[in-house]
Design goal:
By secondary structure, this protein is mainly beta. It folds into two domains: about 170 residues, no CATH class; about 70 residues, Immunoglobulin-like (Sandwich), CATH 2.60.40.1930. It is built from one helix and 17 strands. The chain has a six-stranded antiparallel beta sheet, with no helix packed on it. The two termini are about 20 Å apart.
């Protein structure tokens, strides 16, 4: 008896995801800017992961050239620290009012903000905020970027940030705030960041800061890593007497039936998600079905009674 060998190729999915929920502000996109305002200067950011006590984030108002900040001291810097003695929960929006430390002084809605380098000023054109975990000389992780791509010498190169994913880097940025959906249910943390960093979800133009900016974004439903949905053909019954039912989430294009000697005895084209295949004419024995859609091929062994 000849042996039939059916080689099944399994689709190997490689998942790479730098941004994960790990109860720290340590990955690109772990925060997102949700408001930018000029005169009085102010900005807001949302924590997309839990923020432990003593976490410090540096907000630099200076161009990044691709290899270094344009200056070690000019244009100013705001340092924010979680000094609450507790974890600040993911989804919390931190408002930094009077970011240039003019009267009545810089104020953070939670934690402590100081103008650690004088000259912090948010302009309506050719300006940016770059959030990092380290210093200008040793930036550490670039958490996010909000700014104008027309700003001379400024680039995302070398930051590991991507416009529209974990940064907003586009021409002629003006003051504005996130006005999109206020939750990230069933999204990964990366997808949540993409939702916030999509400029189509923003309102740009003059507004009252921080009155119209949300105080929280519901990220309680954010997933650490979204597991890929497993899609398989469904075959029934087995053993088969007269009819084999085949179902799939996409349209089935082709069904082939082979006998135990490897001979193709049925080949039919379809364009439906549910198929009822008449098999009453087949002799009793073991058979093999190969079903094909546009995205998947699957093998199934069944017994004909």
């Amino acid at each position: 008896m000849k042996k039939i060998t059916l080689s099944l190729t399994l689709l190997s999915i490689s998942l790479t995801q730098a941004q994960i929920k790990n109860a720290s502000i340590s990955d690109e996109g772990d925060i997102a800017i949700v408001a930018y305002h000029d005169n009085p200067d102010g900005f807001s950011f949302v924590l997309l992961d839990d923020c432990p006590n003593n976490t410090t984030i540096y907000f630099v108002d200076e161009e990044w050239t691709g290899v270094a900040f344009a200056s070690a001291t000019t244009e100013g810097e705001v340092t924010w620290t979680n000094n609450t003695g507790a974890i600040i929960s993911q989804g919390t929006v931190i408002h930094i009012e009077n970011a240039n430390d003019n009267s009545p002084g810089i104020l953070a809605s939670e934690g402590l903000a100081i103008e650690s380098d004088g000259g912090f000023s948010l302009g309506l054109t050719e300006d940016e905020i770059i959030a990092i975990t380290g210093t200008r000389s040793s930036p550490g992780t670039f958490l996010t970027f909000f700014g104008d791509s027309d700003s001379m010498g400024s680039t995302l190169t070398g930051t590991s940030l991507t416009n529209g994913s974990n940064a907003i880097y586009t021409s002629t940025i003006t003051e504005g705030y996130y006005s999109g959906t206020n939750n990230c249910d069933d999204l990964t943390i990366s997808e949540c960041a993409q939702q916030i960093n999509n400029v189509s979800n923003w309102t740009f133009g003059s507004y009252t800061y921080p009155d119209v900016v949300p105080n929280t974004i519901d990220v309680s439903g954010v997933l650490s890593i979204k597991e890929p949905k497993v899609k398989s053909f469904v075959f029934s019954p087995n053993p088969v007497h007269d009819k084999l039912n085949i179902q799939y989430s996409e349209n089935i294009n082709l069904i082939e039936i082979y006998n135990s000697f490897g001979k193709k005895i049925i080949s039919k084209s379809y364009d439906n998600t549910k198929i009822e295949l008449e098999l009453h004419h087949l002799s009793s024995g073991i058979y093999h079905a190969i079903c094909k859609s546009n995205t998947k091929n699957q093998h199934f062994q069944f017994v004909k009674k």
